[in-house]
Structures are given as structure tokens and as C-alpha cells.
Amino acid sequence: MRGSTAIAVTSGKGGVGKTNISVNLSLALSKLGKRVALFDADLALANGHILMGVNPAKTVVDALKADAPLKDIITQGPEGVKLISGGSGLTEMMNLSTANRRKIINAFGELGQDVDYLVVDTAAGIEDNVLDFVHACNRVLVVVVGEPAAFIDAYASIKVLSQSGRVSHFDIVVNRARNEAHGKDIFKRFKAIVERFLDANIYHVATVPEDDQLNAGVSRCNPVMLSAPNSRSAKAIMGLAELITGPKATPVNEDAEAFFASETAT
Ligand SMILES: Nc1ncnc2c1ncn2[C@@H]1O[C@H](COP(=O)(O)OP(=O)(O)OP(=O)(O)O)[C@@H](O)[C@H]1O
Ligand SMILES: [Mg+2]
């Protein structure tokens, strides 16, 4: 039987929309009645809380320093989403040791009883800081936009992740597309590159259109899923939440349950 699912939201190139997709996907899953936590794993540059309009009193740094349970540093976000914030602006988080990253990941075991979905908003790129957190998730969403640099960098991410042998299924979210057809076209071009060179399964799970209402939500610190649930971008992200919770969900990477490993072991 499946326990909780950890969903990584990652990208090769920065600024392609990971945080917006993570926050709004968390809210969408919660609206669907799921128990959701959002881990802002963009340590050092954590900004998910700003978009959510909350001010975390504590971050994972406090849990690490005090050896305190994660439950003590959770910030309640909108729609009951539990936010676990990274430490914004802290150089110590940028230089986190592998052992400390492992400690953070293991600490999530205690949350497994309380959440159905953990959404993990990562930093961009293929640093160990990013890869360790992605490897600990069983579903990997890669955000791409339709420009060559984003393709090349997303390809690099998929390459290192698939070559580790631990991730073989990748959910692709095409962001900032003009429309559905444009999103399909971007995915088709990206898939052709990936399949030519890599042994990875990639699935087109959502096209999120370019949407002024999403940006308006960003400036008001009120995510589009709440401020404009009928907007094109909110509907697309709700569609993504419905897909991954529904009977037609794309396959997850069964070997990677590290975020809840200690929970599943008991
Ligand atoms: N679908 C969209 N329509 C319009 N604007 C968007 C869309 N997606 C993202 N943006 C804008 O792009 C910018 C970057 O988004 P976001 O912070 O979510 O990216 P990111 O991938 O998390 O960046 P970083 O790599 O720095 O963490 C934001 O200003 C956001 O408003
Ligand atoms: Mg971000």
C-alpha cells in the first residue's frame, strides 16, 4: 500500500516558475481534500512563504540547530497547507553538508502520518543541494519553458537524475505557454531531444499558460489558486493536481521514498 507521496518540483534553469507551481499545486491538492505539506527546499533563497503571504517564525535551520522535531517549525499556510520553510538568506544553508541534508530528509519521517502529499520546491540546477532532495522524492516534476536555455538545462537535470539510476519517470510541466497547442509543441520538441539521448520516461502532465493573473497574485502575495481560481493558470494547475491524484496518474519512482522512509519502515 502506498504511503505519502513526495513530489519534487525542479528545473535546470532558474526562474521558470517552480515556486509558483509548487505553492499553487500545494493549494490545489489541499482543495481536493488531501493533507498537504510544502517544503521550501530552495535553501538560502527560500521565497515560497512570501508568495503564500505568511511569515514563518522558524525554519529548518532551527530544527537542525536545536535537534527539534519538524512539527515544531511548521508554519500554517492557507487552505491548511503546512509550510516547512528553508532559511532565507542564510549562507549556512547554502553550504549544508550532505549529512545535514540527510538529517533534514529523515526528519520528514515523523510527518508521514499527517500528510498525503509533500511538495518539495527545489532550487534550480544540478548541485548536490538540489539532487539530494529530488532523489528523496517519488514523483519528479520538471518545469520547462519554451526557450533553448531552459531545454538544455532541463535536459541536463534529467540526464544526471536518470543516470543516478533512481529516477526513471519524469513529469514535465510546460510553463508560460501561449496556449494548449503551444505547450504540446514545446513538449514534443523537448521529448524528441530527451528520447534521442537518454533512457528516461517523460510525460507531459500540464501546460500552464502565460497568465497576468498569476503575476498579479505574486505581487499581492496571494497565490492565483486562491485569488483567481478560475484563471487559466489556476485551472491548469488544478488539472495537474487532479491528474496526479487520479486513476490516470503517471508512474512514480517506487524506489525513492526517502522523505518518508522512516515512516514506512515502522
Ligand atoms: N505562467 C506564468 N505566467 C506569468 N508569469 C509567470 C508564470 N510562471 C512564472 N511566472 C513569473 O516568473 C517569475 C519566476 O517565477 P518563480 O519564482 O515561480 O520561478 P522559480 O523557478 O521558482 O525561480 P527560482 O529558480 O529563482 O527559484 C515570477 O515573477 C512569476 O510571476
Ligand atoms: Mg523558486
Key descriptive features of the protein:
single chain; 266 residues; alpha/beta; Rossmann fold; 8-stranded mixed β-sheet; 12 helices; 8 strands; 18% strand; binds adenosine-5'-triphosphate; binds magnesium ion
Furnish the topology, listing elements before pairings.
Elements: E1 5-10, H1 18-31, E2 36-41, H2 48-52, H3 60-66, E3 75-76, E4 82-84, H4 91-94, H5 98-107, E5 117-122, H6 128-135, E6 139-144, H7 148-163, E7 169-177, H8 180-197, E8 201-209, H9 212-219, H10 224-227, H11 232-245, H12 261-265
Parallel strand pairs: 1-5, 1-6, 2-4, 2-5, 6-7, 7-8
Antiparallel strand pairs: 3-4
Helix pairs in contact: 1-11, 5-6
Adenosine-5'-triphosphate binds at residues 11, 14-20, 42, 124, 175-176, 208, 210-211, 214-215, 218, 233.
Notes on the protein architecture:
The longest helix has 18 residues, at 180-197. The model has no long low-confidence stretch (mean pLDDT 91). The protein has helices spanning 18-31, 48-52, 60-66, 91-94, 98-107, 128-135, 148-163, 180-197, 212-219, 224-227, 232-245, 261-265, and strands spanning 5-10, 36-41, 75-76, 82-84, 117-122, 139-144, 169-177, 201-209. The protein has twelve helices and eight strands. The chain has a domain at 5-35 and 113-265: Rossmann fold (3-Layer(aba) Sandwich). The radius of gyration is 17 Å and the shape is globular. It is 42% helix and 18% strand. Helix 5 runs parallel beside helix 6 (128-135). It has an eight-stranded mixed β-sheet with strand order 3-4-2-5-1-6-7-8, with helices on both faces. With 266 residues, it is an alpha/beta fold. The site of adenosine-5'-triphosphate (ATP) has 19 residues, from helix 1, strand 7 and helix 9.
